[in-house]
């Protein structure tokens, strides 16, 4: 019996796209052990020297010139990648994509980033018969995700579906599935055991995340939070940004028994379970992980573009609010001092989550479409 093969293509422009690909892969295999999956960050795979340089340049732009990124996002918002751009991408970086597909022989290709989506779309115009699904990993529908060669769009919400419909994409090519998260984020852990594992005290705890790249701009607010360190336990996760971590560890404000400064970790799901409040950049994947845990969220300094739209969606849905001032910090840090209020708030969010989101829905839909 032929085993179904799914090829998931992403890019390393931020960690969320690839995390979504891995989450979908794990979900597919958990539902059907016979499914074979392969996740590839296509640019890095085909160009191991040039690929990381391009990602690094993008990261510097995000860090140093976020407003420029926002202008580009808005300027191209309604435009798909034109055929000349697709040809240029293919010739410059992706000339061996067809060989990779031929070798792996997938029954289905899922793209979680617009660039490999455009490259595969071009190959389909040239004769590739493999179905192409596009998993949009934000709560917006930028034009660069769209292509007439996409067989099915997998989207986070009805709002994103409606945005695609406004661009003339037929409803039967769009499925609302939610953004998949790793099954670890659907499990709950004993809080006292986690406190022992991470050397934490049984006290109100706040998790502060700067994204996979550890980008944190608001030094003033980060330092201000430490004024609560006698009453609130603070866990700072700065991702792969070792310079930020070293700077924080050398700062007297962060040198306290109730403050942890962590680098990259694969245990964010456990840290969310042991925390009462999440303060984060509003990346699509991090927000969805927070949603799956039912943890209240405060969002700070969204990157202009998709993070702004992510933030708007989660605020409007009642899962979080913008971190606009010290007063916001004071109010929320007071809320989590009261155990009853904190537990009730989280239970309400979990109830709302159960009504709106199922982390395995995307995997189920993909399996059904493969039948």
TrEMBL record:
MF-aspect GO terms: hexosyltransferase activity
Source organism: Paenibacillus lycopersici
UniProt cross-references to PANTHER family, sorted A to Z: MONOGALACTOSYLDIACYLGLYCEROL SYNTHASE, MONOGALACTOSYLDIACYLGLYCEROL SYNTHASE 1, CHLOROPLASTIC
GO biological-process terms attached to the record: glycolipid biosynthetic process
Family: Belongs to the glycosyltransferase 28 family.
Gene3D superfamilies per UniProt: Glycogen Phosphorylase B (3.40.50.2000)
Sequence ranges assigned to domain Glycosyl transferase family 28 C-terminal in this UniProt record: 205-332
Name of the protein described by the UniProt record: UDP-N-acetylglucosamine--LPS N-acetylglucosamine transferase
Matches recorded under Pfam families: Glyco_tran_28_C (PF04101), MGDG_synth (PF06925)
Residue ranges annotated for the Diacylglycerol glucosyltransferase N-terminal domain, each copy included: 17-181
